[in-house]
Amino acid sequence: MLHTKIICTIGPASDSAEMLEMMADAGMNVVRLNFSHGTHDSHREIVKKVRTLNLKNREFPVSILLDTKGPEIRTGDQHLKLITGSKIQVVSDPDLRDEKHLFVDYPYLTEQLGQGNHLLLDSGLVKLEVLEKSGNSLKCRVLDGGMITPKRHVNLPGISVKLPGITISDRKDLKFALEEDVDAVALSFIRNRETVLEVRQMFRE
């Protein structure tokens, strides 16, 4: 018997009862609900389908894992093509959105970043290096270029970001996890033990 479990993230292409059953028959052990996408209603429907599937006297019931969105930094609504070797101004001012400025929704950009720091955009597909900072702007060189579409993730390697461990949205999603009695939760972008203890306390209450 294999002890390694197969976890499958469920989305629009795989959320039908028929597809869930076929995936379970193929060896899926855990359904992952990605709360970065979808709504409580759409996720609740998947939970119902999995519960119904498990009523069919399956030898190995399918478990349900809720994955929180977590605290995050994102770009704005811009479409920008960043060319390797070019320069771009990264700003936290939402009014500065043009081909020369890239908006990032993190107010502590210039407070925490300086020359030599890096920004990874879209899960690291695009990489920027800070050359200098001036006022509320970071002048950056594009090390790895690419197309930036709206609401891309931004990572700041080596920076202890000033974001809450558990966001208001996460709290609502964790309440959903309790109400629907899911089997496990995955906490995204956790940075310290205090956040884990906070979630444990929420579950006790």
TrEMBL record:
<feature type="domain" description="Pyruvate kinase barrel">
    <location>
        <begin position="3"/>
        <end position="203"/>
    </location>
</feature>
<comment type="similarity">
    <text>Belongs to the pyruvate kinase family.</text>
</comment>
<keyword id="KW-0324">Glycolysis</keyword>
<dbReference type="InterPro" id="IPR015813">
    <property type="entry name" value="Pyrv/PenolPyrv_kinase-like_dom"/>
</dbReference>
<dbReference type="GO" id="GO:0005524">
    <property type="term" value="F:ATP binding"/>
</dbReference>
<keyword id="KW-0418">Kinase</keyword>
<dbReference type="GO" id="GO:0004743">
    <property type="term" value="F:pyruvate kinase activity"/>
</dbReference>
<dbReference type="GO" id="GO:0000287">
    <property type="term" value="F:magnesium ion binding"/>
</dbReference>
<protein>
    <recommendedName>
        <fullName>pyruvate kinase</fullName>
        <ecNumber>2.7.1.40</ecNumber>
    </recommendedName>
</protein>
<dbReference type="InterPro" id="IPR015793">
    <property type="entry name" value="Pyrv_Knase_brl"/>
</dbReference>
<dbReference type="InterPro" id="IPR040442">
    <property type="entry name" value="Pyrv_kinase-like_dom_sf"/>
</dbReference>
<keyword id="KW-0670">Pyruvate</keyword>
<keyword id="KW-0808">Transferase</keyword>
<dbReference type="GO" id="GO:0030955">
    <property type="term" value="F:potassium ion binding"/>
</dbReference>
<dbReference type="Pfam" id="PF00224">
    <property type="entry name" value="PK"/>
</dbReference>
<keyword id="KW-0547">Nucleotide-binding</keyword>
<dbReference type="InterPro" id="IPR015806">
    <property type="entry name" value="Pyrv_Knase_insert_dom_sf"/>
</dbReference>
<keyword id="KW-0479">Metal-binding</keyword>
<dbReference type="InterPro" id="IPR001697">
    <property type="entry name" value="Pyr_Knase"/>
</dbReference>
<keyword id="KW-0067">ATP-binding</keyword>
<comment type="pathway">
    <text>Carbohydrate degradation; glycolysis; pyruvate from D-glyceraldehyde 3-phosphate: step 5/5.</text>
</comment>
<dbReference type="InterPro" id="IPR011037">
    <property type="entry name" value="Pyrv_Knase-like_insert_dom_sf"/>
</dbReference>
<keyword id="KW-0460">Magnesium</keyword>
<dbReference type="GO" id="GO:0016301">
    <property type="term" value="F:kinase activity"/>
</dbReference>
